[in-house]
Amino acid sequence: MVRFSKGFKGWTIILLLMVVVITGCSASSESKVEQDPASGAGASGESTSETTEKEAETRVVQDEFGDVTIPVHPQRIAGIYVEDYLKALDITPVVQWYNPMWGVQEYLDLDVPRFDLTGSIEALLQYDPDLIIVDGVDAATYEMYSKVAPTYRLPEEILQDSNQILTTIADVVGKPEKGAEVVAEFEGKIADAKSKLQEAIGNETVAVVRLNVTEKTLALFGVKNRLAGFIYSDVGLTPHPLAANMKEYQELLSEEAIPELDADHIIVFPSNGNWSSKENEAAIKVLDGKLWQSLPAVKNKHVYMMERSHWQSGAVIANSMKIDDLLQKMVP
Fold this sequence. Notes:
By secondary structure, this protein is α/β, with parallel strands linked by helices.
């Protein structure tokens, strides 16, 4: 029988252990190399598990109805009424809201599924949002959205200020720096437009009117209206007295009131579709009436037929497009 000395036997065990360790390290390295390309962690050194943990982080913020726990790094955001702000922050929402009566905000040019506001909120489940941001919904509706995903309802006190809405949403989605950048750029554009418009039309009065195509009526927007008030409060245009003194957001113009709308400039857009939509032909004839045709702005060719989509939004991209419209129509 061959016998090994104690020394030889000890060295053999040590060598075997070294082989096991080296083999294990090699296997671990190969495994990591195989996983990194798929996880995107090769260059950054961040593993799949680390990325998952990062996405799973949460924080508590306060919205209109109290404290809500939201993801620190939301990946799939649904913005009900606020897709404009998300796009301004370079975020593509998982859905775009629409109403069969009002249509969709075409100006955003979003290539995402549509979410019907008149249908079931549970339909959002199929798009697996990890955060929902809503504007102006009541407590009951808020609770229904909250059952789908963590939901942040914008505070009521900021809803008249597009810049505050933008910076708030930027903070909620974890992009405060981008929000500040967009606000600064937007404020610069406002200042430039305000100067040019003041030089072009001075204190001449302006009115904003919507043609309600279904009812064939005209609605005048007041200075408090979120869709139009921006051109007065921020851009500095002078509202016609009917708009300036209006307590409501908008009021229907009776036939008797039309002659009182003697503004120097009138902006008008349809409530749905566009000026060439066949279904709007009957409603557009309202503007052929004698009372409308007798208005000073009509006679002086200072009526501006705007497109509906962005004029029926009070968000930052829409307001930027309104500025472009005003400069194009009013500045020589």
